[in-house]
Amino acid sequence: MARILLIYSTTDGHTREICERLQKVMEQQGHELTLMSIADGPQIDLEPFDKIVLGASIRYGKHSKMVYEFIRKNEQLLAGKPNAFFSVNVVARKPEKNQPETNPYLQKFLRQISWRPDELAVFAGKIDYPRYGFWDRQMIRLIMWMTKGPTEPDAVVDFTDWNQVDAFGRRLSRLR
Ligand SMILES: Cc1cc2nc3c(=O)[nH]c(=O)nc-3n(C[C@H](O)[C@H](O)[C@H](O)COP(=O)(O)O)c2cc1C
Predict the structure, then answer these.
(1) Which of 35, 83, 89, 169 yields a CA-CA distance of 20 to 30 A from 49?
(2) How many CB atoms lie within 10 A of CB 167?
(3) Could you identify the atom of ligand 1 that is nearest to the CA of residue 131?
(4) CA nearest 92: which of 116, 67, 68, 57?
(5) With a 6 A CB cut-off, is 11 part of the ligand 1 pocket?
(6) For ligand 1, is residue 132 a contact (CB within 6 Å)?
């Protein structure tokens, strides 16, 4: 049994939902899971945990500044324990961009940080127009129109492949 910490960086809650699913998978395999929001601060105490997993969504091309701060602050501790990172973005709905090696956001992110996670994943996110403010909704609809995604103003589309999330959970369970 390992004590596993899942830290999420989310704006609309989807990355948290993915973490909750990972939690379920790993609890079924006998591990003890703790979920924390990165918004709880870069001071999250990693010491009591055996494995650390960080998941973050993309907004206008970037992961949150808090993600970079957290990594900078905890680089040594992270390197000393089995660890993983996953990114959530809607570009990953395209089959040619849904792997860590082929997802442009994850590749760019890895060039910006010196942490080398033991495991990596990319998950396609969710579009939830009714939830967005006016300008965000218009911007995302425009981007979706340009990339052949859903544009109806009341569309809610979950692109996440939940089997892929389950498989990642099992990989994290085995990670040593
Ligand atoms: C305002 C806004 C900007 C976004 N920008 C991007 C983007 O630049 N590239 C992308 O692939 N997805 C983008 N997305 C899609 C999000 O990554 C996706 O909705 C994800 O599921 C959000 O996860 P969260 O709820 O955990 O924040 C954007 C979504 C919103 C609402």
Answers:
(1) 89
(2) 13
(3) 31
(4) 57
(5) yes
(6) yes
The answer to whether 127 and 90 are in contact (CB under 8 A) is yes
pTM above 0.90, yes or no: yes
- Cα separation, 106 vs 85, in Å, equals 10
Distance 34 CA to ligand 1 centre (A): 24
Question: Within the chain, where are the H helices?
Answer: 14-28, 65-79, 104-112, 134-146, 162-174
Identify the residue whose C-alpha is closest to ligand 1 atom 21: 125
Contact 15, 55 (CB under 8 A): yes
CB 54 within 8 A of CB 77: no
Residue of 79, 58, 52 whose CA lies nearest to 11:
58
14 lines ligand 1 (CB under 6 A): yes
